[in-house]
Amino acid sequence: MVRIEEELGSALAAVGDDHTGGPQGAGTLLTRTHILTCAHVVNSCLGRSANADDAPDTRHIVQLSFPFITSSDYRPARVTAWVPYRESGAGDLAILELLEPAPAGARPIALIKTSDLNRHEFWCYGFPRGYSGRQASGRLLRPEPSGLVAMEDIKSTGARIEAGFSGTAVWDEDLSGVVGLVAQEDCDIAARRAFCIPTRQLEDLLRREWPMICDVVVPARHSAVGSQLDKMYRSVWYLSAAPAFTFKNLAGARETTGELILGRDYIWYEPLEMVIFAEDIRRVKLGKAGADFANLWIQIEHETPNGRTVAYFASGQLWGWAGLAGRTRSLYKDILRMKESSRY
């Protein structure tokens, strides 16, 4: 069982100090020196209009604390990436860079990317006015047209998400990880709803302003029901260029060998820590290398932050033409099914 206070608490920051009237929101430590929060939280700390578009000057300093580690030990930070609020509801993001090391015990946390959050239970921690900190929980719904995901409070009593929760991480109880960032509450207080920016949208919005976002996004490693991996293929061979070897030399063609995990909307190749999301796949093709009919390779053309690239995979788990070809065909069919089902 994952303990939230250990996993998320060590990465949770309160944004603002006594000079700003207490924390104005929260943030999440993504690297040893970088924290993700909302732009309007930073604006509030600096006494600016909540929806001010222009990025604050680097001379403007925001104070942060890590309440699950030490509540009174503040760290200065400045804005290093900025995505202003947009009328559609997207945007409203800031990356803060610590000017001093994070306190001992603070640990960065990754962002989990998945295509389906509907009906997942969530937990988050914020700093509403009048409280040193408060928990809130509920259920995630399907994305709105803006891409934001609704967060529904299904309790009749207890804390709801309100001002002071902005910028905090959304912990998915089903996936045991962070799947988004709280952005805004519903204008109808009685609705007890709020909205978060899911990891998928965070990555899209920050990719230009802060390319390191791609290094802190990982796929959901198990399904929301239980904790088992969706499907694993062992001894999968990989090449970065089209192979031209015959069956007799097939083993010598590979660059590396290891486990390939096929999730609901991603491919994870363990030896290279390579992740290919279904939405980034442009073409999947089954082809031969050389004249041997058993020498089959799967060609996956996909998008990366550096442009389009191609990866080649083949099964090396079973020797003999029937084993190699049959296992590779099975993997190819599973990849096609994953790509197709992820559209819905």
Map the helices and strands.
Elements: H1 4-7, E1 12-15, E2 25-29, E3 34-37, H2 39-45, E4 62-66, E5 70-85, E6 91-98, E7 111-113, E8 121-126, E9 134-143, E10 149-152, E11 169-172, E12 177-185, E13 193-198, H3 199-206, E14 217-219, E15 231-239, H4 250-253, E16 256-262, E17 266-269, E18 274-277, E19 281-288, E20 296-304, E21 307-315, H5 321-341
Parallel strand pairs: 7-14
Antiparallel strand pairs: 1-2, 1-4, 2-3, 3-6, 4-5, 5-6, 8-9, 8-11, 9-10, 10-13, 11-12, 12-13, 15-16, 15-21, 16-17, 17-18, 19-20, 20-21
How would you classify the quaternary structure?
single chain
Instruction: Briefly note the CATH topology name of the largest domain.
Output: PH-domain like
The string of secondary-structure elements, in order, is HEEEHEEEEEEEEEEHEEHEEEEEEH
Radius of gyration: 23 Å
Query: How would you describe the shape?
Result: elongated
Q: Name the structural class.
A: mainly beta
Low-pLDDT residue intervals, each spanning 5 or more residues: 222-229, 319-323
How is the biggest beta sheet arranged?
7 strands, antiparallel
Give the neighbour order of strands across the main sheet.
Answer: 18-17-16-15-21-20-19
Share in β-strands: 35-45%
Structural domains: how many: 3
